[in-house]
Design brief:
Elements: H1 2-9, H2 13-18, H3 20-40, E1 44-48, H4 54-61, E2 65-70, H5 73-81, E3 89-93, E4 107-112, H6 122-135, E5 136-147, H7 149-158, H8 163-168, H9 191-198, E6 203-210, H10 219-223, H11 227-240, E7 252-259
Amino acid sequence: MEYLKNFYENYDEDGRLLSQHGQVEYITTRKYIDECLAAAGGRHILEVGAGTGRYSVALAKEGYEVTAVELIEHNLELLRQKLDGTESLTAVQGNALDLSRFADDSFDLTLLLGPMYHLYSREDKLLALREAVRVTRRGGYILVAYCMNEPTVIQYVFGLNRLGEVMELDMLTEDWHCISKPKDLFELIRTEEIAELDGELDVSRVKLIATDGATNYLRDYIDKMDAETFARWLDYHLTICERQDLIGASHHTLDILRKN
């Protein structure tokens, strides 16, 4: 936890999502959140790993009843500063691995838009997913974000010429899967591993989408786009973000599940 605490106390997550390249991930994620809320027909939302509240606060201000669970106290403080008292939002410190404070079938929509980035064992991943599924009502939706393996190999290992370093540190398997530990902060995954996790749950996959697609490969260029060009890029991205032949190359994905 100390690695995460140090990282998030010095990282501007809001700034990332407000940058032009970060808006692609945010707008895409919100599009599918809104679709799931419309399909679920409910107003009770749980966000586990709410960070500084970029999603939770926005949803609460739109009139949804939101419960935000966040591990890092610094992030909770920033989240609470965004509230004016009119929102129906309860913010609590907690862990994705233990949602025992919540009863079964309590929420129409459960969001895990950060916890899976920082869970390193299959057992912990499954525990977090099972807890999210448990507290979601039948027919409700669980949206889970992941960081993908291949962009790191492409951009970090080769793009930044770090191959020798990661090989020396034994951070790659023979089939080029990154090996992460808590000190590395982010756990990376492949689409087949996500499918295997889903297979252990009482859910049906609705969609697996690329929330940023090719955006982060071009982020310096995208941040310099004029408004019209950026709008065209966003339209292109949203047109192809469900193409399964491109999913694994996206930096971030969103697994959309429905509880059976």
